[in-house]
């Protein structure tokens, strides 16, 4: 299948080929990102007005938005005593009653525009049922007798997003004319949809602007959204096909020679979720195409053990492995664990981070036995070579961009790729953002874990909370205490910072040792602090969200997060994932004085559930996909009609339609 040939479509002509778009208007349209006829046709209305019949002014009810049609019988500017502030007010009459309309900031053009005798459509709502009936800042549209009168009244009309200098009426006329001239050129895409279920694309474009009934709008939107998802899936899947055609897999299935002793020494039995994921990975790594797999598992689900087993498969097969982590702390932790596990198996583990470089020290290329490289993005650096690379593992993938992941992959000759993430990606995003990867899910936590209880409290409760922490520490446990900032910012003194709170915490927990961890502390210091915390020489760790990823100290059972409203929901869940890793019961206390309902709703979700999937979906609904997309290719996600929160079904349909085509 060839790339769709967009350039020859008549719809790709400049918007100027629509009658009424001159140089000036073309500039205004450009401000709305409308450059071509197609952009104009696909400019989604922001709302609709049913102008099949107008409500008599007499029948207006408070708080109910409505459109009325009336003539101006009086208008004028009202000045206030002091200053230059002026209000513009005009009075409409529709034959049933009078309606006052006012704008708090009179504009110079208003007296001419709202001239006595002119007729307008007015969209707004009454604030109360007092007389005179009044709309404040209504949207209005001049009724001009003319050819295109039927475009603007006696039907359901669209109101599009506008820009200054472009009225709703003009925009509507332009879209109408574009439809009249180009409707027959709106082609069905290469991938045919079932037209018994969906309207034809050309019909959908008309319906989305000029629906017969309001219920048509959603049908049309779905059709246009589906087209967007099909285009997106086409991109994703053709990239993948191209990759598979050019890539030959290295045989990395392994022979269990190292795996067996490793599992024997591990100290626990893999969960059945871990085992079944490993089966999928083994099939991939022994297969004909290089593995491209995303491993999703909630915090604490045991992804590291899966990574270790996957690494052993490649190592058994005689290939080197690279494991990349997003922070030095996490890279160090992996380095320590993997060294402990692998060195008795005769596998060397090397660390490569910004502050610890192994390159140059060792003539790596000459080695006989395979090596595991562990590191941060320092692994990506140009001078650092990764010879005979069989497998690339990226931990906490959501902290990296796709480009970084691919840079690492390109250091080898089509190595297998395993990316791991603890951010459960809502399926809509998974299918688009990670559409070029196969997905495995670890949907089970290892047994023998204490429960995690979560509470939301205000700052007045802090003394009690610290009392509680003292009690837990006295009982032998450890605590994390997290703040949003490193330093107090002048602009926002209410947001607490670790450097300032550190002393307060020391005072509150006197008799115990408190450590401090944030991004500006030197790596050696960080390492030392982490080592002491792991050994319980430090009982409480004051930290920024730096510790959000990967840190694994099972004896830590208390997580206190201040200014909790300053963290994202997914982030809070990650932070909370640092506790509940051992047999003891754990406690997460979120401190927030935030008054607004959204912030409280978010924190309540955390208190209600530990299920990362539910939390991610809630986060997506509350905040939109931007946050989750993060540094990913959000550019590819410019959807006009599709919705990454709601359209799971459409995305699935698009995916299978495109898959059939290949
Ligand atoms: P994550 O998926 O968040 O990376 P980790 O790999 O850090 O989780 O594992 C969390 C903790 O669970 C670690 O202490 C690890 O040793 C332990 N663990 C992993 N798998 C099992 C298992 N099957 N049984 C018991 N404990 C396990
Ligand atoms: Mg991990």
Helix/strand layout:
Blueprint: H1 23-31, H2 37-41, E1 47-50, E2 66-79, E3 86-93, E4 98-103, H3 110-113, E5 119-124, E6 134-136, E7 139-142, H4 149-152, E8 156-159, H5 168-182, H6 201-209, H7 215-246, H8 259-265, H9 272-285, E9 292-297, H10 303-316, E10 320-324, H11 328-342, E11 348-352, E12 371-375, E13 389-394, H12 402-409, E14 416-421, H13 427-433, E15 438-442, E16 452-457, H14 462-474, E17 478-482, H15 498-508, E18 514-517, H16 523-534, E19 540-543, E20 556-561, H17 569-576, E21 586-591, H18 597-608, H19 612-623, H20 626-629, H21 648-661
Parallel strand pairs: 4-6, 9-14, 9-15, 10-12, 10-13, 11-12, 13-14, 16-21, 17-19, 17-20, 18-19, 20-21
Antiparallel strand pairs: 1-8, 2-3, 2-5, 3-4, 5-7
Helix pairs in contact: 6-7, 7-21, 9-10, 13-21, 18-19
This protein binds adenosine-5'-diphosphate and magnesium ion.
Distinctive features:
662 residues, alpha/beta, 7-stranded parallel β-sheet, 6-stranded mixed β-sheet, 21 helices, 35% helix, disordered N terminus, binds adenosine-5'-diphosphate, binds magnesium ion
């Amino acid at each position: 299948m060839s790339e769709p040939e967009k350039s020859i479509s008549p719809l790709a002509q400049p918007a100027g080929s629509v009658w009424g778009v001159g140089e000036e208007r073309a500039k205004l349209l450009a401000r709305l990102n409308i450059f071509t006829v197609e952009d104009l046709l696909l400019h989604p209305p922001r709302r609709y007005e049913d102008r099949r019949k107008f409500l008599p002014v007499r029948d207006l009810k408070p708080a109910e938005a409505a459109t009325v049609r009336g003539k101006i019988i009086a208008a004028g500017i009202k000045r206030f005593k002091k200053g230059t502030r002026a209000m513009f007010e005009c009075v409409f009459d529709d034959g049933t009653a009078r309606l006052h309309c006012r704008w708090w900031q009179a504009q110079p053009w208003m007296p001419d525009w709202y001239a006595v005798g002119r007729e307008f459509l007015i969209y707004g709502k009454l604030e109360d049922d007092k007389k005179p009936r009044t709309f404040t800042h209504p949207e209005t549209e001049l009724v001009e007798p003319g050819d295109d009168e039927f475009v603007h009244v006696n039907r359901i009309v669209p109101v599009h997003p506008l820009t200054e200098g472009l009225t709703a009426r003009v925009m509507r006329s332009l879209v109408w004319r574009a439809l009249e001239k180009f409707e027959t050129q709106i082609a069905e895409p290469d991938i045919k949809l079932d037209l018994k279920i969906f309207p034809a694309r050309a019909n959908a474009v008309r319906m989305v602007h000029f629906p017969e009934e309001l219920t048509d709008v959603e049908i049309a939107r779905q059709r246009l959204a589906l087209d967007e998802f099909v285009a997106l899936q086409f991109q994703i899947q053709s990239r993948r096909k191209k990759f598979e055609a050019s890539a030959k897999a290295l045989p990395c299935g392994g022979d269990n020679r190292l795996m067996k002793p490793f599992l024997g020494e591990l100290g626990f039995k893999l969960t059945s979720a871990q085992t079944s994921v490993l089966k999928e990975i083994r099939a991939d790594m022994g297969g004909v195409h290089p593995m491209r797999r995303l491993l999703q598992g909630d915090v604490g689900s045991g992804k590291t053990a899966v990574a270790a087993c996957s690494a052993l498969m490649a190592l058994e097969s005689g290939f080197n492995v690279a494991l990349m982590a997003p922070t030095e702390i996490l890279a160090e932790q992996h380095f320590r664990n993997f060294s402990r596990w692998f060195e008795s198996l005769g596998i060397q583990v090397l660390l490569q981070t910004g502050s610890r470089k192994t390159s140059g020290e060792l003539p790596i290329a000459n080695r006989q036995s395979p090596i595991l490289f562990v590191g941060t993005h320092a692994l990506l650096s140009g001078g650092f070579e990764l010879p005979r690379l069989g497998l690339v593992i990226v931990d906490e993938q959501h902290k990296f961009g796709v480009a970084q992941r691919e840079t690492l992959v390109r250091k080898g000759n089509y190595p297998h790729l395993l990316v791991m993430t603890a951010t459960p990606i809502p399926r809509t995003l998974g299918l688009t953002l990670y559409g070029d990867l196969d997905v495995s899910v670890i949907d089970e936590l290892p047994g023998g874990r204490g429960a995690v209880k979560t509470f939301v409290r205000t700052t007045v409760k802090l003394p009690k909370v610290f009392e509680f922490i003292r009690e837990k520490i006295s009982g032998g446990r450890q605590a994390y205490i997290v703040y949003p900032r490193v330093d107090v910012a002048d602009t926002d003194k209410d947001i607490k910072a670790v450097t300032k709170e550190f002393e307060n915490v020391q005072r509150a927990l006197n008799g115990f040792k408190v450590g401090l961890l944030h991004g500006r502390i030197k790596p050696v210091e960080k390492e030392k602090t982490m080592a002491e915390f792991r050994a319980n020489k430090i009982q409480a760790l004051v930290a920024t969200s730096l510790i959000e990823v990967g840190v694994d100290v099972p004896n830590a059972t208390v997580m206190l997060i201040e200014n909790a409203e300053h963290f994202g929901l997914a982030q809070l869940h990650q932070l909370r994932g640092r506790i509940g890793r051992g047999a003891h019961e754990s406690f997460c206390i979120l401190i927030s004085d935030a008054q607004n309902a959204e912030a409280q709703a978010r924190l309540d979700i955390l208190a209600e559930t530990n299920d990362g999937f539910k939390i991610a979906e809630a986060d997506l609904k509350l905040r939109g996909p931007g946050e989750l997309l993060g540094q990913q290719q959000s550019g590819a996600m410019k959807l006009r009609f599709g919705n990454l929160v709601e359209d799971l079904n459409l995305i699935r349909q698009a995916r299978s339609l495109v898959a059939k085509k290949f």
